[in-house]
Structures are given as C-alpha cells and as structure tokens.
Amino acid sequence: MERREVLKLLASAAALPALSSPAFSLFRGIHAQIAEMPGLKTLNPHQNATVTTIAELIIPRTNTPGAKAVKVNEFIDLILSEWYDKEDTARFLSGLNGVDERSLDLFGNKFIDCASDQQNQILKQLDEEAVNDLVKYSVPTGTKLDDIANPPSFFQMMKKLTLIGYYTSEAGFEEELHRTIIPAGHAGCAPIPEELAN
Amino acid sequence: MAIKTYDAIVIGSGMSGGWAAKELTEKGMETLVLEAGRSIVPEVDYVEHVPTWEVKFRGLRDRKALMRDQPVQIEIGDEWNAKFFVNDHEEPYTTPPDQPYLYLRGRHVGGRSIMWGRQSYRWSDLDFEANLKEGIGVDWPIRYKDIEPWYDYVEDFIGVSGQSEGLPQLPDGKFLPPMEMNCAELVMKDIIAKTYGGKRVMTIGRTAILTQPHRGRAACHYCGPCARGCITRSYFSSVNSTLPAAQATGKLTLRPFSIVHSLIFDSQTRKVKGIRVIDAQSRETLEFHGRIVFLCASTLESARILLNSATPEFPDGLANSNGQVGRNLMDHLCQVGASGTLAGNEDKMQIGNRPNGIYVPRFRNVTEKHPGFLRGYGFQGGGSRPGWERGFSMQGFGADFKHELRRPGPWKFSFGGFGECLPHPENHAEIDKGRVDAWGVPTLRISCKWRDNELAICKDMVMTAAEMLEAAGAKDIVLQDNPSPPGVGIHEMGSARMGHDPKTSVLNAHNQAHDVKNLFITDGSCMVSSACQNPSLTYMALTARACDYAVGLTKRGEL
Lengths: 198, 559
Known about the structure:
The structure holds two protein chains of two kinds.
Chain A: H1 3-11, H2 22-36, H3 45-58, H4 72-83, H5 86-107, H6 116-136, H7 154-167, H8 170-176, E1 187-191, H9 194-197
Chain B: E1 5-11, H1 15-26, E2 31-34, H2 42-45, H3 63-69, H4 125-128, H5 130-134, H6 144-158, E3 160-161, E4 175-176, H7 183-196, E5 203-204, H8 238-248, E6 252-255, E7 258-266, E8 271-279, E9 285-295, H9 299-307, E10 333-342, E11 348-351, E12 358-360, E13 377-384, H10 399-406, E14 411-419, E15 428-436, E16 442-447, H11 452-471, E17 475-480, E18 519-521, H12 536-555
Parallel strand pairs in B: 1-2, 1-9, 2-6, 3-4, 9-18
Antiparallel strand pairs in B: 5-12, 7-8, 8-9, 10-14, 10-17, 12-13, 13-14, 15-16
Helix pairs in contact in B: 1-8, 1-12, 6-12
C-alpha cells in the first residue's frame, strides 16, 4: 500500500470513525498531559543544568535540534525517578557529582561554569573511560538498560539515556533521522537516501 | 425460564476459536463464543501508529509495573502492547523449581492472534509420518492429503504472502506475492544456494500479512510493529478477519468476560450439555447450553478446563479416561543460533519496516539420517542495519558523532533456530491442588523440560547457523547456544492429542473427543508432534476441517 493511500485511509472518517473522533483526541490529550507535567522529581536545579549541558555536548544542535531542545534532561529525570532501581539512581547522581569534582580539580570551576573547550576535555576523558570499561567487560550492545554485566558507570548511563531520549523524541525521529511512522513503502535493497548519506 | 440451547458453543476467540466461530456460523449454526477476557475495539486498542515520544518511557517499558504485575509476561511484548498480556497474579501457575516454564498469553477477544508472529508454514508428511516411523508417541491419525485442502481453504481466506520453493518438507501454499528480501538476505540466499547445492534453501518468510488487497482488507503499509494491532487489518487476526465474518452471518453471539470454569457432562447422553462460566466482572456463576462444543481455549487452558471438569465417570477430568489430558506438552526450542556482520552494500539500506524475516526450511533428517538426533529445525532471522542504538558502545560525542549515527551501521545477519520437540509423557500440566486464580478456578502446575534430543538439536543449530555465516564471510560471529526455557516459543501444543486409539489419545482424526462425542478440541492441544514449523496455520486448518465434520454429523443426526 502506498503511503499516501494509507494516510488517506487513516484520515477518512468513513473507514475509521474513532480515529478522527473523541477517542483519538482523548488519547492525544492524555499524552499532552504527560508532556506538560511540570517540575523534575529527582534532579535539583544544579544537577539538571549539568545533565542538560552534558546531553547537549553528546548530541548538540547542528542543522537539526540537539538534546537540550528535545528536553532529554526531563527524560533522564523520569528514568532516575521511576525506572532505575534506587542504587542505579544513586550511582548516577554520585557520578554526576564526580564530574564537578573533576572540573574543580582540573579547572577550578564546577562543570557548567567551565569554558566549552574545558567541558569537551572532561567529556573526552569520561567517554574514553566508559568505552574502555565496555571493552574490558565485553558488554553486549542491546537496547535494554540493564544488559551490562558490570554495573554501568555514570557516563555509560548518561550517554545511553541521552541517545534514547534524543532519538525517540519527535525531532530526533523526524528531523534528524528523517523517519515517518508510515514509511514511503517497502524496498528491500535501495540506495541510502541522500538526507541520511550526507 | 428455560436456558437457551445454542447449536454450538466455542470456548475461546483466538486463532482457532475465531475459525470455529466463522465456520460454524457460516454453516448455519447458532453459535455462542465464550471469551474469558475483554473486548478489543481496534480504533481504541490498536496502538501501532502511536509514536515513541507519546509513550511514557519511550519504549523502555514501565519496568517497575511489569516486575510487579507481569513478572512472567515481562519476557515478551513492549511498552505499547503490555495491555495485551495477562496479569500474572490474577492468572498464576506453578512449576517445579528446576523446570522453569514461561506461560506467555493474553486474555481478550482475539487472544494471541492479536500479538502472534504471523509466520505461516504448512506441515508435510515428513512431520505427519515421523512418530509412526520412529516409534515415538502415537501416530498422527491424518496425513498431508487429509489436511491439504484445508490449508488451501484457510490460506485463501487469511492471505499468506510467500514464495513457492517446491520443497517436499515444506509444501507450497496459495501465496500472495512475497515480500522483498533486503541486501544482506539476497547475498546470503545466494551463498547458501552455492554452498549447499539445494540441500539448504533460504526463502522469504511466509507470513499472514497481505502484500495486496485481499477480501476487503488492505495491503500492508510497512509501519512495522504488528503486535500492537493493525488498523488497516493487513495481518490476520480473528478480530481483523474471522470474527467479522462470523458476525456477518447474524448467527454469532460473542460473550466476553466469560471465564469457563468447567464443562457440564450429562451422564445419560454421555455428552457435554453445557458450560459453567464465571462472569469476570460480576463474578456470578452462569450456565450456557449447546449441542456441540468446540474447545479452543489454547493448549494449556483447554487441558485445564478438561481437568477441572471431573465427573464420577471421569474422575481424572473430562475426556480423560486414559490419563493423556495434559501430557505430551511440547514447545519449540528457540532463541538459539548465531549472528554476524556482513561486509558490502554499505551504500544501500532497507526502506520501510518489513514485519517479516527469512526462513531456512528444515534440512536435517530430510534426505539423510543425522547420527545425533531425530527430526530437525528451521531458521528464522534476516539481515538488518543497526541504527543509532549502536552509539551506546561507540566512542565519541558531539556533532560528528551525531552525524555518524544518522547513517545506518554495517549490515548484520542473524539466524534463530526453531527446533522440534518430541512428545514426552512426563512433560505435562496438572491441576495444582489447592491453588486458584483470581476467579476461584483451580490453576495449573506445569512440568516441562528440554530432553536429550532437543539439546542435541540445539547444539547442531548453533553450528549450522555459524557455518552459513562463515560461508558468507561474516565477521564478529556471536553464538547463542543457551536455549530459552520451554514456553518462550509460545508454540505450546500436545496436551490432548489426536490418535487412532482411544486408549492412548484424547481426540480422533477429526478432533472429536473419543470419550465425549459432541466435544471437539482444535487448538494446539490436539497436536501429536510439534514439527519445527510455526503451528498456527495448522491449528486453523484442523479447526475448519473439524467444523466441517461436526456440522456434517449434526446435520445427519449422528450426534
């Protein structure tokens, strides 16, 4: 079925009464409420600022939005509050604090107050350590958060959550990955579209 | 007021119950379908187009709720369709501590036909003759020629896409056009053909998904996550297909929230006269009467209902004079195989989300006898290019890293085996004395484990998967050699087997209970062996065949 036909079918009230009717708007409404929930449950303002800064360094704004614009910090707060076990949240927060300790040690400032090249330098260290740990423990690379034999380090958690938060956001999915819920159709072996190749 | 007597009562509305409902009503029978779970309203319940950013945990699932309410069902499903799986506290079962069994299921109209894998393969005489030739279990009372017209009939109605291959061990069907293979699959297909000279074959999965409009249902639009529902009704489920057909006859009464406690046996007529039901909402006990009964509640539930229906004549459970009900439980050995990285085709990718993979039909014990084990296995799997998830373990961050993750990663290929399980009387389910579910119905204790033949198959599966990857020049080959516990294949079958002899089997060649003439059981319980092919198509064909037989008996006054 061609994508435009599907879209037509989905938009057609005759074929699918409930999709264009209150049931569907109700569904949208519920999700709008989730998105609008104010306030963070775990991260304090300083931790939030640090998480937001690190996430944006991992996935910065380019010609498409970055981690900050899609509120990866709020997703991370949700995971810390409602998904992780307490020990994992504690390890994350202690590792987050460790970032400040490192920046104070190296540059005399908390991480968010460092110059951007200093922040990059710290992130490079954290990233190298995290990847070395991965090699050392020969970690599988699945999508579950708990697939790591050894408890994941702060930066492993941070990077993974940033990528999930970003690429599962509307902008990450549609603008960065150029994907749509209803694809153009199916082709088994097609040239990589230009917008993904460049 | 006298209780209305239906021409037929069908217990269960899933894969086989939906077919029984369609066939019986279309043949003029006033039919009551009893479904234990709730109704499904596609426009509300189907969620395949809800984007990730509209689900709370972005696809990571509500882990704490799952661990609390669905500690078994957590094995399967996703954040969208967790609602299609049961609450494990409401519907408990037990196992011996050393025999884990994962009983994965839903309770709603449509049953597992909503979340099934849709792979649809015919069985052959290699399967139907195996027990007799090898002296395992009992002989199938049917052969391929008995079921072939019913495979045709079912495929014509549900729509199965696939490629004919002319293989005796995997008969071709009436296929809609096949889905396309992707780049890595085309490479692998070629390598397999060259390396094994026809002894091993790779074909595109045969799947109950429409590749062109069919009987009023739309073709697939490749959105991908079928197990969350399908608003265009492009894959087969009873909700999408058989139940609407039954509804259209005006002869169907579908009653959700109807938990069957037991069957009521009339010792004078020696027939089932009715069904004892607990209304899941009011918890009232109700009775429904019917002239014939189709038990299609699923392999384990149907056994449970029979075992819970003991009478003075059948102290061990209805239709269980020989003690075979609940025994010979089988599932497919799975989650075993190998994967690797395939170089080449870096500038190409798959467009759209094809909800199907490839299939390597059974090649062991087809023409030559394997020294290590009986029967065999098939592989499912396919090629794919990992997306941004590979960034979890990649070094880097920043604009270049982001840019890199926009491109798909290197081609991967994986083979996952589905291995045949032999019927063994000690693999069984029984009533767990003293334990009941949330509605007071006695529950099951399931004792099932892989035995020597399955474990030997498992070893071979890993080796042959790796062999094919090596032949294709794959790198970084990873072996999966630890089979999942029974149940995970979700192909449980065998608990009320068919057979020639009433002394050793529960059902005859037409799925009619030897002991109780107006009782037919057509879900997975009737299976005499497990083959290695996905079984749903066979359940559907056997159901249609049994309905034809039962209605014939009824019309001739022979019941």
